[in-house]
Every structure is written in structure tokens, then in C-alpha cells.
Amino acid sequence: MGRILLLVELKGGNDGLNTLVPYADPKYRELRPGLGVAREHVLLLDEKVGLHDKLEPLMESWKAKDLAILQGVGYPYPNRSHFRSIEIWDTASAASQTLSEGWIAQAFQGTSLPKGAAVDSIVADTNALPVTGPSLRTIVMQDAENFLRQAETMKERGGKADAGNPALRHVLAVRQEINAAAAGLRDKLRAAPAPAHAYNQDSGLGRQLDLATRLLAARVQVVAIKVAMGGFDTHANQAQTHERLLGVLASGLATLRKNLIAANLWNEVVVMTYSEFGRRARQNASGGTDHGSAAPQFVMGGGVKGGLHGAYPSLTDLQDGDLRHTVDFRSVFTSVAQGCWGLQRDFGLRQPQRLDFLT
């Protein structure tokens, strides 16, 4: 079955420069005199870059070499619209192209997934686009308790009252399959052990990661689970907001790692963050940053080759005030499709970059 991808969407455009900080570059201080992260608040990873110190919970993973940081990920002709740019990422399209199928659904086109499972992917937030397409059966489950209540009320209905209508017969069959999948998930979730380490239930991300952990512990046979965290559109007074968000993210991911190690699942899962874009290199007049382009991604898991991958974008060679990407995100997806599911996909790139972050 391969590994399960746990996608973590950072909604709003995470500021990559203050996440993976180029602390040794004097240009960074020049571009962000008030917003730059002070060196004493940077966790040094090498002689050039370090993590914001609110990401300290991730250092255990970094030291264990199961955290990969992909630098400068983006795409040509970057779009600065939230809606369009996240669509580009979610469908692995070129900037000039509109696709309706998600990149994970595209990866599984023409493959046969186990029919007994009845569900192929689970989304614990509102954006299901990466797994949208005819090749995947997806359940959106934002709240485990609510889902369990709904699953209880679903009655098994056969397709007997279709009156010879093929379209109605199909609808009834699909509904029956969904009801069966919901009932199966309900039973598995009920039987799953509680996570060994408690998540912060005050945060939406904590609740979603709790659900993801229970699904993984229940051995639900899916190819992907998606969670999300909002608030990253930091146009004004960014410092405090971004610090808080990074703290919540790091705490959640560190707890997830501990739980999956405790459940002996860490080698079976690849965790990957992504955001629609990074922020502009220069701070704005409101103590924040505007929509930009390239940014880093975190990839974690027992089968991840830890360390820095790709090149940090230049702060002196900007494109319209934005960082030039050094890694095309579709090359990342190519590596994930191969490393998680053993699928050879190029997502429209003629020559995807070889990225060696998965064993």
C-alpha cells in the first residue's frame, strides 16, 4: 500500500523568510529592519540559515534527521492571488493553466486501489481539492464527533426503489457505498487507541491532528489525509501573529511525531507542509509583509532524509521584489508520488528536479 501522506496546508501564505531565517545575510536586515528575526531568536541549522525559535519543538526531529526542509519552493510566473495560487498548487498546474483535478487524484489515475477500503483519502478541513477527482473516494470529516453522529443516523439503503432508472440506481449505489464507508470508519475510529500524547484542543490544528492520529492508529487504508491551519496572511503587525502561528504548528507537528513513533507508525507516514505562496522580501509600512512567491516546505517522517534540500533563494537577485524559486513544487510532488506510492508522475514538468528527501 505504500506510505500515507499527511498534508498540512498553511492558509494565507506563510512567511518563509521568517520561518527559515537567512540570519547571516546582511541583506535580510536591510530588507526587514523592523521585522527581521533577531539572531538570538534563531535556532542555527548551519552557517547561513536557522529556524525561528518558536519552531524549537521541531529540533528533536531535526537532530534525529527525520525533518527535511525544502528551500525556495515555488513555480514560474507566480500568481499573488490566494485563490488562484492555492489552486495552482492543489492541481499541480502551470500558472497559465486551469485544471479541475487535484494532484493526488491525478497521481492515482489509471491505478487500482483496494476496493474493500471504500475510502481512499480523508480531509479534516474545508479544502479537498488536492484529492478531488474520479480516481479517489474522499470523505471530508472536519469534526470526528459530528462525523460519528452522522454515521450513526445513516441507514443502509438498497437500490431497490430505482424503478428501472439507471441514473437513480447509480446515485443510490454511490450513497450506499458512502454509508458503508462512513459506518466502517465509525467502527474503526471507535476501536482506535487514544493518542499517547495529548494535542492542544484549543487549536484547530491540534484537533485535526488528533483525528489524523486516530485514523492512522486505526489502520484506515487511505493514501492521504489532509489538515489545515489558517491565519498566515500577515499584512500588518506580523511579528506577534506569525510567532504564535509557528508555535502552534511546531507544537502540533512535534506531538504528532511522538504519537506516531509511540504507535510504531512513523515509518509509514510522510508529513508535508505547504502554503499558496511565501511573502515579499521587503517588509511593508504596516509592520507586515505582502503576498510573495517562493518559500520553504517541511517534510517529516521515518523514511525522510533529514537536512536542508535545494538552494536558498538569493536576497540580492529578486524578481519584482520577490524571491526567485529554486525548486518547482511539481518536482516535490514527483518525489512524493514516487516515495509514498511508487508512482512515476511528472505533473507536466519535462524534467522534474531530482530531490533526494525520501528513502
Characterize this entry briefly:
The protein is α/β, with parallel strands linked by helices. 32% of the residues lie in helices and 15% in strands.
Helix-strand blueprint:
Elements: E1 4-10, E2 20-21, H1 26-31, E3 42-44, E4 50-52, H2 59-63, E5 67-74, H3 82-91, H4 103-107, E6 121-123, E7 138-140, H5 144-153, H6 166-191, H7 204-217, E8 224-229, H8 238-262, E9 269-275, E10 295-300, E11 307-309, E12 327-328, H9 329-341
Parallel strand pairs: 1-8, 1-9, 5-11, 5-12, 6-7, 6-8
Antiparallel strand pairs: 2-4, 3-4, 5-10, 9-10
Helix pairs in contact: 5-6, 7-8
Descriptive key words:
359 residues; alpha/beta; nine-stranded mixed sheet; three-stranded antiparallel sheet
Please describe what this structure looks like:
The chain is of the alpha/beta class. The chain is 32% helix and 15% strand. It has helices at 26-31, 59-63, 82-91, 103-107, 144-153, 166-191, 204-217, 238-262, 329-341; strands at 4-10, 20-21, 42-44, 50-52, 67-74, 121-123, 138-140, 224-229, 269-275, 295-300, 307-309, 327-328. Strands 1, 5, 6, 7, 8, 9, 10, 11 and 12 form a nine-stranded mixed sheet that branches. Strands 2-4-3 form a three-stranded antiparallel sheet, with no helix packed on it. α5 (144-153) packs across α6. The two termini are 16 Å apart.
